[in-house]
């Protein structure tokens, strides 16, 4: 066997600190295409969950229009679209239907119905902008992603069986923090603006839950969530940078480093998204210790 050698990968990534208003003001087509490519990759990898199935169909139709052109009934049939589905849907949205043929056919039919509506010739750059605006409405758009684990809630039989931690992505941008599950539909579990949380790197609340990983603790709504990650210190430093950037741009008071309260006033996008909701019942939350 030929040994596998890691190949270096060069990526062009957008500055995570750039405000949305500044990004929208960019007119250079090359820059817009770079923004689009980064957002499309994140969407297809499942890092931009939309929550609502109808939203996936609509966004997939935009990507189909961009790649295939205006809908043509003589060419764009179900058989034509089937091998291209992973160009338009996140891999989890399509492969979770693996083995259930009728569900995949149903998804392909829904894409065809949405794509049929796109009968007007549109410049590619405008289609890229349309896709970007869908992504920009998400609370985790433009975030830096960190690998982490969170605890599952313990049920009535919790002591009788092992509870494995949930593998998650922690998405941090200028506005706040989102946590989404990696497996299954890669759904959003938690989204909070900085102004509603406190955080700090700390020792695990329960010694048997740490798995030897560093821990960053998030406090919100009178509860604590432990996030275990080798990148805990990086997350802490990145949050500090985001908050300090908001302080400078908004003229807010000095950050209290002991509790690290957030200064962000902008994180309204989560509540406006249909299908995107906090799912705290899927997280193990601890009460704040009394002093």
Task: Write a compact overview of the structure shown.
The chain has 291 residues and is α+β, with helices and mostly antiparallel strands. It is 34% helix and 15% strand. The chain has 9 helices and 8 strands.
Could you walk me through the main structural features you see in this protein, from its secondary elements to its overall organization?
By secondary structure, the protein is an alpha+beta fold. It is 34% helix and 15% strand. The protein has helices spanning 20-24, 29-44, 53-68, 78-81, 91-95, 101-116, 124-136, 232-250, 269-272, and strands at 144-150, 166-172, 176-181, 188-193, 198-201, 215-220, 223-228, 286-287. Strands 1, 2, 3, 4, 5, 6, 7 and 8 form an eight-stranded antiparallel β-sheet that branches. Helix 2 crosses helix 7, helix 3 (53-68) packs across helix 6 and helix 3 (53-68) runs antiparallel to helix 7. It is globular and about 70 Å long. The model is unreliable at 251-269 (pLDDT under 50).
Structural descriptors:
8-stranded antiparallel sheet, 34% helix, globular, alpha+beta, 291 residues
How much beta, percentage-wise? Answer: 15-25%
- State the end-to-end CA separation: 61 Å
Record field, number of beta strands: 8
User: What's the Cα radius of gyration?
Assistant: 21 Å
The biggest sheet amounts to: 8 strands, antiparallel
- Give the helix proportion (percent range): 25-40%
| Net shape | globular
Q: How many DSSP helices?
A: 9
Structural class: alpha+beta
Uncertain runs with pLDDT below 50, 5 residues or more?
A: 251-269
Mean pLDDT metric: 82
What pattern of helices and strands is seen along the backbone?
Answer: HHHHHHHEEEEEEEHHE
């Amino acid at each position: 066997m030929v040994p596998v050698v890691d190949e270096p990968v060069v990526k062009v990534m957008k500055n995570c600190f750039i405000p949305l208003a500044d990004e929208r003001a960019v007119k250079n087509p090359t820059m817009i295409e770079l923004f689009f490519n980064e957002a499309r990759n994140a969407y297809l990898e499942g890092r931009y969950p939309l929550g609502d199935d109808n939203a996936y169909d609509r966004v997939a139709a935009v990507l189909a229009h961009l790649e295939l052109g205006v809908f043509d009934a003589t060419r764009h049939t179900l058989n034509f679209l089937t091998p291209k589905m992973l160009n338009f849907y996140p891999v989890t949205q399509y492969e979770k239907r693996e083995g259930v043929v009728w569900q995949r056919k149903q998804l392909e039919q829904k894409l065809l119905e949405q794509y049929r509506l796109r009968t007007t010739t549109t410049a590619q750059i405008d289609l890229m902008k349309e896709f970007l605006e869908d992504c920009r409405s998400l609370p985790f758009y433009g975030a830096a992603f960190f690998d982490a684990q969170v605890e599952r809630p313990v049920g009535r039989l919790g002591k009788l069986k092992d509870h494995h931690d949930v593998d998650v992505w922690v998405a941090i941008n200028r506005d706040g923090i989102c946590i989404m599950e990696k497996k299954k539909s890669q759904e959003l579990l938690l989204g909070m603006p900085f102004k509603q949380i406190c955080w700090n790197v700390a020792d695990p609340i329960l010694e048997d839950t740490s798995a030897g990983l560093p821990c960053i603790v998030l406090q919100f709504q009178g509860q604590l969530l432990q996030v275990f990650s080798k990148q805990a210190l990086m997350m802490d430093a990145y949050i500090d940078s985001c908050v300090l950037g908001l302080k400078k741009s908004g003229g807010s008071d000095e950050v209290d480093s002991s509790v690290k309260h957030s200064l962000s006033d902008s994180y309204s996008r989560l509540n406006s998204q249909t299908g995107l909701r906090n799912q705290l019942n899927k997280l193990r939350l601890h009460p704040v210790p009394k002093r």
